[in-house]
Amino acid sequence: xxxxxxxxxxxxxxxxxxxxxxxxxxxxxxxxxxxxxxxxxxxxxxxxxxxxxxxxxxxxxxxxxxxxxxxxxxxxxxxxxxxxxxxxxxxxxxxxxxxxxxxxxxxxxxxxxxxxxxxxxxxxxxxxxxxxxxxxxxxxxxxxxxxxxxxxxxxxxxxxxxxxxxxxxxxxxxxxxxxxxxxxxxxxxxxxxxxxxxxxxxxxxxxxxxxxxxxxxxxxxxxxxxxxxxxxxxxxxxxxxxxxxxxxxxxxxxxxxxxxxxxxxxxxxxxxxxxxxxxxxxxxxxxxxxxxxxxxxxxxxxxxxxxxxxxxxxxxxxxxxxxxxxxxxxxxxxxxxxxxxxxxxxxxxxxxxxxxxxxxxxxxxxxxxxxxxxxxxxxxxxxxxxxxxxxxxxxxxxxxxxxxxxxxxxxxxxxxxxxxxxxxxxxxxxxxxxxxxxxxxxxxxxxxxxxxxxxxxxxxxxxxxxxxxx
Length: 470
Known about the structure:
The chain is of the alpha+beta class. 30% of the residues lie in helices and 44% in strands. The radius of gyration is 26 Å and the shape is globular.
């Protein structure tokens, strides 16, 4: 009987080991859904095997299910507060959720227990850099390098810190884009935005937007938005346009996401028209994002265009690549307009970032080219050809953990119309972000040229967004 029980126990252990191996293989192949399915089932069969639960939590983190991972790691720590692996994985999950203060505390606990804990030192240094505590980050790195002089990750962080080349995106350990296509993963948000636009020809716009971004399931997000836009022109009657739209984002697997949705626009005369968007986003390798979409939307940069009820539909593509301190962006779209016009528009930008203590500097170049089949003079951006070459200079300042400010300026030359000479052009923008608990206040100001068939008008835009994160 004892031999039989021993044999059954060995078989169960082998089954747990086999599940662990299969789960790890699925994670390595980036099939996180399969890994979660295998490890969740195995954890239910063998509830006392903490290895399976740890691996399941790591699969949750890889797929972006950070709350599930956090809850799982907390349950393991509740059962065994001295479990080093659970504490480390919980700190990693909290870091991904931007709960840096609690993650810092966990990393420090691990380092107090074992000053040679390399993963804890890497995690703490990463957090301190994101919090712009560069002096403290340097101390952590020096101590860790004394114990691990051959650590490539520690050496990389140290070298970049010395050269001032660290930026917030570079300290993400997994190096993957978030669900928003390049930014850190975020939770549910509720936004309220007020916007004012005024140009030198006397046009004024007041816009009010409300948006809810919520996770329906671990792989599906829903984005609901409404907007009221009031147009005032010195020669045209006021126009009030209302739009509503709903969009669903499905994360098919670790490198493919599908986006689709629709809505409606109601013009001032009561006419309704439909809007829609359908597209895909692909992240084939680390720090590379490519997307393509079909879009139908209203076109109303001012009241004159709103009066003509112009709608546009067409296809577009977007490309983003971030190798080290460099960023390459490019986009292009082709649209057919309801007034029989057609446009081809595109822009490309290359930026190089430099860090110095609390400041992040960016410098680069942007090329923009728009072409229209004809000048309809319906109030929207419609010279037959527009080109601009602008040098870019920007800076970002982080003040503590609660406030961040950004400024960007562009200077160069632009040509408005086919065969027209180039002349000096410039743009500027200033924005900030204040975080108070779950609340965020995001002000933004921009100056640029609004180009129409009759010329280029100076435009000033002020935007304030109040956001609550669930």
